[in-house]
């Protein structure tokens, strides 16, 4: 079997495995929808009042997208590794030609497809429910590379968590412990002006910060003239680094 066919076979199996887990489907597609409905349609932004949600609705598009770009890969890939390890599946895979990098690539491709669909759903709901004005320009097409890069990055991160955590519950706990602070402290929902001055430099250390700023430069009118090249480059470099580290962290299957 060629490498392409091995990756395709593993990806198809991972896709069907995802569809069989209704809880995973719910949290991937409907949890972000609930956030959009609650914060975007019910709480609504208050551009003149200051505080949280004081910016126009389109400003928070990166935050809504980050819920799936961040949480889904961390928990899914980490849980898959823990599940494979608990069920001795990696020992079985060791008898096949499938390599560690191929296994992670197959699962990353599935996550890219899942999160791509969820991102389209979220973006559409934000526009419909909140009235957010997203500038339709050629650069909007770069939203795809940002999402793909972030998914690859956090799939690699999830693989590392799966290796370090001893159980599936441990993976979920670790991923939530990491993801929740990143979600709100990476220039997504909470603006830098609301954070203490000493904390602002720490925001620059979050990979999600560069995703959020890049997406905002593509989807938020007042930021449409801002550069996004540096942010895209950082996301791409980190994606490669985390993917390599994640592939190395997977228990040997070759």
TrEMBL record:
Every ABC transmembrane type-2 domain range: 23-253
Residue intervals passing through the bilayer: 24-45, 57-75, 109-134, 140-161, 173-199, 228-250
Example of a GO cellular component annotation carried by this entry: ATP-binding cassette (ABC) transporter complex
Predominant subcellular localization, coarse grouping: membrane
Gene Ontology MF annotations: ABC-type transporter activity
Keywords: Membrane, Transmembrane, Transmembrane helix
Topology of this chain in the membrane: Multi-pass membrane protein
Pfam families registered for this protein in UniProt: ABC2_membrane
PROSITE patterns from the UniProt entry: ABC_TM2 (PS51012)
InterPro entries: ABC2_TM, ABC2_TM_bact-type, ABC_2_transport, Nod_factor_ABC_transporter
Subcellular location as annotated: Membrane
PANTHER family: ABC-TYPE MULTIDRUG TRANSPORT SYSTEM, PERMEASE COMPONENT, NODULATION PROTEIN J
Full protein name: ABC transporter permease
């Amino acid at each position: 079997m060629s490498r392409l066919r091995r990756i395709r076979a593993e990806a198809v199996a991972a896709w069907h495995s995802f569809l069989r887990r209704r809880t995973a489907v719910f949290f991937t597609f409907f949890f972000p929808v609930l956030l959009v409905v609650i914060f975007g349609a019910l709480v609504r932004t208050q551009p003149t009042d200051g505080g949280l949600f004081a910016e126009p609705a389109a400003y928070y598009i990166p935050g809504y997208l980050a819920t799936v770009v961040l949480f889904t890969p961390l928990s899914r890939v980490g849980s898959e590794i823990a599940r494979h390890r608990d069920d001795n599946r990696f020992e079985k895979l060791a008898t096949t030609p499938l390599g560690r990098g191929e296994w992670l690539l197959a699962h990353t491709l599935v996550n890219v497809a899942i999160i791509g669909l969820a991102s389209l759903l979220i973006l559409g709901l934000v526009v419909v429910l909140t009235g957010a004005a997203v500038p339709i320009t050629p650069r909007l097409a770069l939203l795809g590379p940002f999402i793909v890069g972030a998914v690859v990055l956090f799939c690699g991160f999830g693989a590392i968590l799966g290796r370090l955590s001893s159980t599936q519950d441990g993976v979920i706990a670790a991923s939530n412990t990491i993801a929740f602070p990143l979600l709100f402290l990476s220039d997504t929902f909470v603006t830098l002006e609301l954070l203490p001055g000493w904390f602002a430099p720490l925001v620059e250390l979050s990979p999600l910060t560069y995703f959020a700023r890049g997406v905002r430069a593509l989807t938020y009118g007042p930021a449409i003239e801002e550069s996004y090249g540096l942010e895209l480059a950082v996301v791409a470099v980190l994606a490669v680094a985390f993917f390599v580290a994640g592939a190395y962290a997977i228990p040997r299957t070759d």
